[in-house]
Specification:
With about 160 residues, this protein is α/β, with parallel strands linked by helices. About 20% of the residues lie in helices and about 25% in strands. It contains three helices and eight strands. The strands form two sheets. The protein has a four-stranded mixed β-sheet, with helices on one face. Strands 5-8-7-6 form a four-stranded mixed β-sheet, covered by helices on one side. The longest helix has 13 residues.
């Protein structure tokens, strides 16, 4: 029943090839962090995503809005909200399950070494997924590094689950 429903949806909505889109790409995805410097140390220091901008949040006094370059003109942004006593959120509807970022095979291997040296646990090839590793940032945001080029689905994507 699930397979048939997926096939119906694919037939009804997926167009052939990669048709033109009205979008130019993701300008930035904005996430929330607990500590600006801790987040910079993780994303720039361990993952080697350059910090490109850092300024005050126009909507909340005392909050910082900052951006990392994740390639291809895309940015990963963060806010902190000091004083709000925000709690960690569970995975749920409307939340982010993970952020997948494409890297070269060489950067993929180098990132595994840096993550290991930093004591960051990751999952990946042990799950039968050769092209991806998954790990959590300091605020429990799940990140996937995938050595698949942009616009390509991994070979390990399930075909009829």
């Amino acid at each position: 029943a699930i397979k048939a429903e997926r096939e119906r949806l694919a037939a009804a909505y997926i167009t052939g090839g990669r048709p033109a889109t009205s979008a130019r790409g993701i300008h930035h995805a904005a996430l929330i962090c607990s500590n600006v410097e801790q987040t910079i140390t993780f994303y720039q220091g361990i993952l080697e995503f350059p910090l490109t901008e850092l300024f005050g949040n126009r909507d909340y006094k005392g909050s910082t809005h900052f951006f990392f370059d994740v390639g291809n003109g895309n940015l990963l942004a963060f806010f902190d909200f000091p004083g709000l006593r925000l709690e960690p959120v569970p995975e749920g509807l409307g939340g982010i399950q993970h952020v997948a970022i494409s890297v070269t095979p060489e950067d993929f291997e180098a990132a595994k070494v840096r993550l290991t040296e930093a004591g960051v646990e990751f999952r990946g090839p042990d799950m039968g997924v050769e092209e991806s590793i998954y790990f959590k940032d300091p605020d429990n945001i799940q990140v996937e590094l995938i050595r698949q080029p942009l616009f390509e689905m991994p070979e390990s994507a399930p075909q009829d689950s």
